[in-house]
Amino acid sequence: MSNINNKNTLNLSKAFAERRSHTYPAHKWLAEKFPEYVKIMLDLDYEIRQKTKIYDEKMHELFHIIALAVKGSNPHNQQHLKAHIKKGLKLGLDPEEIAEALMVCVNPGGAMVLTYSVTCMLEAIEELRGEGWKEPS
Asked: How far apart are CA 37 and CA 58, in angstroms?
């Protein structure tokens, strides 16, 4: 077990959750039990998504959305997919951009990718509206 103190563990847990667009109980548990691993994951995330900037954060979210959509339809994936859709919408992705990217995935991933993911997107939009989010005009 690591000698990292509780404050550092909580900071790792919070950073890990924030970078993943959604808080899962697993983030806190991993930070408590494997803080060195979580630190490595945060360093990797920094290297990929923050330091190296060929694509902006909005495009990174679109990549997450596509990867999660192609990964498949299951209850555990749905919340993760919706969390990335919400973040993408907040960053300025248009629903039409997300849908077009998902349409591109139909040939390699099947029609289920499109139907399942657009359903998640519509649910995410409704949740965001409930949270006071205003769609860009």
From this structure: 26
